[in-house]
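Researcher: Predict the fold of Putative membrane protein YeaQ/YmgE (Transglycosylase-associated protein family).
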Amino acid sequence: MEVTSFISALIVGLIIGALGRLVVPGKQHLPIWLTLLLGIVAAVVGGWIATLFTTFWLFVLIVQVLVAAGGVVLVDGLYSRRR
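Model: Structure tokens for Putative membrane protein YeaQ/YmgE (Transglycosylase-associated protein family) follow.
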């Protein structure tokens, strides 16, 4: 992976994390740094899942946001239960 690809994946991941948090209704108990970290992971995982079907950029973006929203819901449930 080139440096520019890595930097763009980080930037897209931060945006995906923010979008994933916005999609989930209600109050989340996650700190923002954890949401952004989830976004980076969701961008990679969602991109990999979406490219199994197609490389159309809008479909990839939608899958990434859905994976990020699922991650926010899952980790928020674990995080709030622990506190």
